Amino acid sequence: MKRVLALVLAVCMLVVFLPACGSSTPQPAPETPKAQTAEDLGVDLSKEVVGGQKEGAEYNFAIVYGGVHPFFDPWLFGAQQAALDLGIPIPIVTSPQNWDQTEQNVIIDGLVAGGINGIGMFPSDAVAGNEKISELVGMGIDVVTLGGSPATPSDATFCYATDVGASVAFATQAIIDELKAQGKTEGKLLHLCSSLADTNTQKRQAAINEVLAKPENAGFVLEWELADTDATEPAEEAISAMYASYIDQVDGIVCTGYVNAQVLGKTMNERGTNDGVVAIGIDDSADVLAAIDNGYMKGTMTQSAWAMGYVGIYALKLLADGYTIKPDAPFFIDSGYFLLTQEGLPAYAESQQKMAYDFVSTMADKYFNPPAN
Q1: CATH class, range 32-162+304-337+346-369
Q2: What pTM was estimated for this model as a whole?
Q3: Domain ranges of the chain
Q4: Which of 49, 88, 95, 177 is most exposed by smallest CB count within 10 Å?
C-alpha cells in the first residue's frame, strides 16, 4: 500500500507552472504524467468520432483558472491529454495570480488578442465573470465553464462541476454512520469551511443541516463551524486552537476546503493519531492521502480534477466542429464525486482518468446535436 500511495502522491504533487508573485520570469512546466488510454481503462470511445482536425475549423483553445489553487493542478494534464487524443494543438493553460475577476479579464483579453476561439474557464467571480462570458460569446468565442458555475442565466454552453451540496451531504452522513457503527447515538461535529459569503459554502451549510435534521440522525449536531479556513495561516490557527482546547469534545470533522483538509491531514500525520475523531477531507492533497493511508482520516470527498481539463477541451472541439448544445440539455452537468478511502488508493490515479473517459464517451450524443453537414 505504501508503494502504491507513493505513486499516487507523485502524480498528485505535480503542479502546473504559475508565475511567482512579483516575478515575470517564465519557468519550465512540469513533465506531463503518462495517462492511461480509454482502451486501457475499458471505456469504448468508438462511437465518439470527433478526433482529427475538421477542414476549416480552428482549435485555438485555452483553459483559464479562477486563481492560484492546488485544485487546478491536474487540469493541465487532462487538457493536454485531450488535445493529444483528439489530434489538435495543445491548449494554453493559464491563471490570474489572485482570485480577482479584473485580473482574469486581463488574461482573457490577452488570449483573445492572440486568436483564441474557445475558452474553458472557472470564473474568478460568479457575477462579473458571467458578464465577461457574455462579452466573449458575443464575439463568437465558445465558452464552457468548469469546476465553478457563473451566475445564471449564462451564455456559457454549460457548467461541468461537482454538486457541492450533494458531496458534503454524503460526507456528513458517512461520518455519522461511522460514529453509529462505533456504538454512538449522539455526537458533535465540526465543519471546516471557506468564506461564509461564498455561495458554495452556503450550499454546503444547507446540505449539512439537512442531513442532521433527518430523524434517524437525531443526537448528532453541528457544534462548531470554522469559517475562512481555506488558506494556510487561518487553517493552521483554527486547527491548532481546536487541538489545544476542545479536541476531546469533537466526534467528527467534515472539511469542505482543500487547504483546511490538507492542514488537518498534516496535523493528524504529525500527531500519529486521529484522537478518536472521524474525519473526512476534500480533494487529494498529499497530506490528506497520507492521512487516509495511515488510517487517521476515514477518507476524502473527491472528484476528477483531471477530467475538468479533459472535458473542457473535448467540448470546445465539438463546438469548433459545428456541434450545438441541445435545447433541453441542462446548464449544470454534475461531474460526479466519490468518497476515497484507504481501499481505493491503489486505483485512484486511474479512476481520475476513467471518470473523464466515461463522461466523454456519451457526451456528444447526450448533450449535443451534430453539425448540419
Answers
A1: alpha beta
A2: 0.78
A3: 32-162+304-337+346-369, 164-302
A4: 49
